[in-house]
Specification:
It is built from 15 helices and 10 strands. The chain has 388 residues and is α/β, with parallel strands linked by helices. The chain folds into 2 domains: 315 residues, TIM Barrel (Alpha-Beta Barrel); 60 residues, no CATH class. The strands form 2 sheets. Strands 8-6-4-3-2-1-10-9 form an 8-stranded parallel sheet. Helix 2 packs parallel to helix 4 and helix 5 packs parallel to helix 6. The protein is globular.
């Protein structure tokens, strides 16, 4: 057990909304009494987390008075100091209040769009006050149930205008912030704009300050659409845009379940952890998940410890994979360099193109070569099940 205890260098974080979930769902009332933000910090300190993240209204209720806000912040700051937890990321709730029933930045109502700007600026200030360096935007209500209601091009333009506005706001205030955009295909809207990480990466390149903006991909959101999450993460990493990540688990094709990390698709979780560790990802590993509705707060602690323990076990499995002689031998064989062909790859030249056109290829011989992928996959299963 002690081998898999979390340490600060693992940078495991949870949101106030994750361990603070009361178990309410569309069909049932809460099953756990709410805890204050400070109480949740102490809970996370007990299980060994590195940090805590929050939406503005996770910390400060939307209608709180100034005096109430100051007292909450005082207690929260005290809990952070006593536990040693940090606040790496913050975000804005632009989906819960009825004013956002038709979106925030993409609402047809100019008053709603202006209020969304106001609320987000104040939330950015709050996040920076507690040390956040990453600010996430999840457009939970930025979408439609009927495309009769909105012009999709106008919605893209309005989103771009808002993100450009916040980049300038951060620069004007000398905030050391990066922004991360979080995609989701649907729920709570019928369809949400920029539904995948790939959509977000394309959108970022149209911004005034693309260097300030990256992505915050989430396991469940991509699995909802049946997409290979690790592939999306790899694309974001290769583009230099993997600013933050949300870890949980999900059955494809279902509502957003936010299951404990690695509890459903252990193989996909393994490939994800292996990728993050192999490339040296060093930003927070944030668990955006919830304990089962069956649990009390002891069960919530079991859930939080489970997320971190599973990650660390899979990290060890990734190290075993990388050092397994048989696995590495197969990988070396199927990725063998052909020195005769090496000169033809890379940047185009006319001479290179003409030379490649003249190479005789024995298609039948090449096609008949077995690649040992079945064996490689089974060796991976053996390793994950503890038989290597």
């Amino acid at each position: 057990m002690s081998t898999f205890l979390p340490k600060p260098e693992h940078k495991f974080t949870f949101g106030l909304w994750t361990v603070g979930s009361t178990g309410r769902d569309p069909f049932g009332s809460p099953v756990r009494e709410p805890k204050t933000p400070a109480e949740l910090v102490y809970l996370l300190g007990e299980v060994g987390a590195y940090g805590v993240n929050f939406h503005d209204n996770d910390l400060i209720p939307i209608d709180a008075t100034f005096a109430e806000e100051e007292l909450i912040k005082k207690d929260f700051r005290k809990a952070l100091a006593e536990t040693g937890l940090v606040v790496p990321m913050a975000t804005t709730n632009l989906f819960g209040d009825p004013i956002f029933k038709d979106g925030a930045f993409t609402s047809n109502d100019p008053k709603v769009r202006a209020y969304a700007l106001q609320k987000t600026m104040r939330a950015i200030d709050l996040g920076v006050e507690f040390g956040a360096r990453i600010y996430v935007f999840w457009g939970g209500r930025e979408g439609t149930e009927t495309d009769s209601s909105k012009n999709a091009v106008d919605s893209i333009k309005r989103t771009r205008e808002a993100i450009n506005f916040f980049c300038e706001y951060a620069l004007d205030n000398h905030y050391n912030l990066k922004f991360a955009l979080e995609a989701k295909p649907n729920e709570p809207r019928g369809d949400i704009y920029n539904p995948t990480t790939g959509h977000m990466l394309a959108f970022i390149e149209t911004l005034d300050h693309p260097e300030m903006v990256g992505v915050n991909p989430e396991v469940a959101h991509e699995h909802m659409a049946g997409i290979n999450f690790m592939h999306g993460v790899a694309q974001a990493w290769e583009a230099g845009k993997l600013f933050h990540i949300d870890l949980n688990d999900q059955y494809p094709g279902r509502y957003d379940q936010d299951l404990r990390f690695g509890s459903r698709d252990i193989k996909a979780a393994f490939y994800l952890v292996k990728f993050l560790e192999d490339v040296g990802y060093d930003a927070p590993r944030h668990f955006d998940a919830h304990a089962f509705r069956t649990e009390d707060y002891e069960g919530v602690k079991d859930f939080a410890r489970g997320c971190m323990r599973t990650y660390l076990m899979l990290k060890e499995k990734a190290q075993q994979f990388n050092s397994d002689q048989e696995i590495q031998s197969i990988l070396a064989e199927i990725n063998a360099v052909d020195s005769e062909l090496t000169p033809y790859f890379g940047k185009y030249t006319k001479e290179k193109a003409n030379s490649i056109k003249e190479i005789p290829f024995d298609r039948a011989s090449i096609a008949n070569r077995g690649l040992k992928y079945e064996k490689l996959d089974q060796l991976t299963i053996n390793l994950l099940l503890g038989y290597r």
